[in-house]
Design a protein that fits this description.
By secondary structure, the chain is mainly α. Helices cover 78% and strands 0% of the residues. The protein is built from four helices and no strands. Helix 2 packs antiparallel against helix 3 and helix 3 runs antiparallel to helix 4. The longest helix is centred in the N-terminal third of the chain and has 31 residues.
Amino acid sequence: MEITKLDQSKKIQISSNVIIALLLLFVLASLCQYYSMKLNFTNPLFPEKLIEVATKPFLNKAIILSNGIIVIAILKYFKRNFFALCIGILLVGYYIFSNHYVGGWHTQI
């Protein structure tokens, strides 16, 4: 009963729309970082494996965020704004706390 009240709340609806806009910005930023890194490694002295290791985390982050936006859009279509907001907050946290550095635990050459 209370979740339906939360779903119909104007604050929750506006917040979920703001989260979607923020996530779209994060996807755009991740893709820009990916292409920027790709252009910086155009030197033929860099091995292709190194270029892939350096750029793949940014592409993966953009794919995860865009899939999350699709899930949020589906939830908003079915008027589940509260759950859409919760997933959006989790995705924003993922974007903020997932730093990708070459030589980290996920980049083993």
